[in-house]
Amino acid sequence: MRNIFFLVGLILLTSSSSLAQFNKDPILNLQNEDKRFLNWGYYLGFNQYDFQFEYQDDIGQDILVDKSFGFNVGLIGEMRINEFLDARFEPGLLYTARTLGFPGFTSEVDAIREVKSTYIRFPLLLKMSARRFGNWKPFVTGGVYTSMNLGSKEDSLDDNSSGEFRMKKNVYGYELGFGLDIYTEYFKFSPSIRGVFALTDELVPDNDPNSPWTGNINAMRTRGFFINFTFE
Predict the structure, then answer these.
(1) Distances from the Cα of 12 to the Cαs of 16, 42, 44, 222, in angstroms?
(2) 19-71: per-residue pLDDT in tens?
(3) What is the mean pLDDT of residues 124-145?
(4) What is the pTM of this model?
(5) Selecting from 3.90.950.10, 1.10.645.10, 3.40.1740.10, 2.40.160.20, what CATH number does the domain 33-231 have?
(6) Closest CA to 29 of 162, 176, 181, 171
(7) In sequence order, which ranges of the chain are alpha helices (DSSP H)?
(8) How many CB atoms lie within 10 A of CB 170?
(9) In this structure, are strands 170-183 and 188-198 parallel, antiparallel, or unpaired?
């Protein structure tokens, strides 16, 4: 997490436009940018997803999750409500990978499951902004989302006994975040950090109710964060 904050800070500090905004009397860029009723843009970023497990019996070792970085890309449609509040629709594509380590196995083939997920996301968010200071403006954002996991394997007849880890295709949850609008000469650049919290139990249990992989799992939900770089 320290590396992420360092990366965002480095981008801000090395941008000539962001340095200029701290002058006593900065030249205001894009003064009418936030006055339009509808606004459009796109975003690029990366993510790191985890799983939160709930167990039926709190015995033995927990399932280990080895996280990796993925990427996300999408579009933005924004509707202005007032000076400080906007409604945003941010459909996008997100790819992530997680490796699960199940305890109690002596063979790596049985103990390790690689979970690759491609989500098509449909977040509906509210963006609450502070008053603009020169060429920058902080904001917080939050809302709900629904997503489709294209790599879920929900309909597969095979399960972990055949090496197949299955998840539910449709996921619902909420996200919270904060960021900074930076007004450059030609566009608005907005780095932000988001936390993602699934409300849906995403696990498809194995066919055997006493499965050594899923038999003790009561629920499995995604937890994660991503960093977006928005251009409007």
Answers:
(1) 9, 19, 16, 30
(2) 444 555 678 887 778 888 999 999 999 999 999 999 988 777 889 999 999 99
(3) 94
(4) 0.82
(5) 2.40.160.20
(6) 181
(7) 2-13, 16-20, 108-111
(8) 12
(9) antiparallel
Question: Taking the alpha carbons of 120, 67, 10, 2 in that order, is the dihedral positive or negative?
Answer: positive
- pLDDT over 60 (residue 174): yes
Q: Please give the backbone phi and psi of residue 34, each rounded to the nearest 5 degrees, phi first.
A: -95, 5
Quote the longest CA-to-CA distance of the chain.
69
Collapse the DSSP code of 137 into the 3-class scheme (helix H, G, I; strand E, B; otherwise coil) and give the result.
strand
Residues pairing with 50 in the sheet: 223
CB 113 within 8 A of CB 99: yes
The three-state (H, E, C) secondary structure of 40-103, written as one string: EEEEEEEEEEEEEEEECCCCCCCCEEEECEEEEEEEEEEEECCCCEEEEECCEEEEEEEEEECC
Residue among 127, 126, 128, 123 nearest 144 (CA): 123
> Do 65 and 112 form a contact (C-beta atoms < 8 A)?
no
